Amino acid sequence: MATMNEPYNRCLAPGDSCENKAIRAHSVQNASILERLQFNGHVIAPKLNLSFAEGPRVSFEKIGRNQATIFHGLCTDHDSQIFRPIEVNDLELSNPQHLFLLSYRAVLKEAHATIKSAHDTQTGYLAGIEAGLFPENACAPGKHAVEHMSLAYMTHEYKTRYDEVYVSQEWDLVKHYKRDLGVPPGVALNAMISMGRYSHETDSAAYATLNVFPVADTTILVVSFLNEHSRYFTRSIKKFLQSGPILRTLSYLILKKCSNFVLSPKLFNNFSDDQKKECLMHFERNIGDNTFEPKRPKLINIFECL
Ligand SMILES: [Zn+2]
Questions:
Q1: Are residues 207 and 164 in the same domain?
Q2: Residue 234 sits in which domain range?
Q3: Which residues, in sequence order, are CB contacts of 271 under 8 Å at separation 6+?
């Protein structure tokens, strides 16, 4: 638990050779996006609480905007240098560099999260051996740690492809699907998810990034993926999003597969108790390898008060 609560500092700038200390970088822009959603300096986000008495507990809680969506995967120089174009200018939805950077941030965050998770799992496994809890030969906790390392490696390989796009500035190698969700600002998301397909073109799993953020009086969704993975996107995520009302299908996907999202307190506090309960259950029971289907799918909506 102490290891899990400790940040893992590593600058993942292109080339992976930067040795500067990583800072607390926001994966969702603080000055523009969180500013739109916050109330009295707070937003609502999923939080994992660890205690020996009660075990792990997940809840949607009020947290300070300065703590929301942060990760320790870039040093101060690289964070400001890489993302300057979308920090000092208004985000332009028709600018391929701007959209690439939104997606790149999700890839960097996920690459960092999977490295930290592999590190934590391996640390726990070694501590278990030392304490005599696990056998020294092959065992489930050891296998679990190797699975996390394998996932961190694959995610890092994918991140390396994004590094190449960043360095060559060939922004068109990443494609974007944009959609106006038609609801007032209330939700922000920056996440990378697997599309559940293996790509022979890149010899890797096919991933996509999801960004949700307010623009003027509405909310925009941008899904991004490598050009080579376009058909996987069409057959998986796009098909799923179009299989029902967009706010419901997107909410289902976010709660099932993402954890890096925030809601405005004004929106969340007006959700009905049943809506809060069903959304939390769908989120909590789909963590890790678990799968759970909501009994009241109409209540799976994080964009509107029901
Ligand atoms: Zn750096």
A1: no
A2: 174-299
A3: 279, 305, 306
- Pair (22, 115) in one structural domain: yes
Residue 128: predicted pLDDT: 93
- Same-domain pairing of 31 and 165: yes
| Average pLDDT, 10 consecutive residues per value, the chain (306 residues) | 85 95 92 94 93 87 94 96 94 97 98 95 94 91 94 94 97 98 98 93 91 97 97 97 97 96 98 97 88 93 96
Same domain? 107 vs 212: no
109 and 181 both lie in a single domain? no
Taking the centre of ligand 1 as the mean of its atom positions, its distance from the CA of residue 153, in whole angstroms, is 20
Tokens representing 109?
A: 């965050």
| 83 C-alpha to ligand 1 centroid (Å) | 13
Q: Is 199 left (phi over 0), alpha (psi -120 to 50) or beta?
A: beta
Contact between 12 and 159 (Cβ < 8 Å): yes
45 by DSSP, 3-state: which? strand
pLDDT at 92: 96
Centroid of ligand 1 to alpha carbon of 108 (angstroms): 12
Domain count, the chain: 2
Same domain, 164 and 230: no
What pLDDT, on a 0 to 100 scale, did the predictor assign at position 97? 98
Around ion ligand 1, residues with a beta carbon closer than 5 Å are: 11, 13, 18, 20, 75, 78
What distance in angstroms lies between residue 74's CA and the mean position of ligand 1's atoms? 6
Distances (CA, A) of 154 to 69, 203, 233, 250, 297: 23, 10, 19, 26, 33
Burial of 81 (0-12, 13-18, 19+ CB in 10 A): exposed
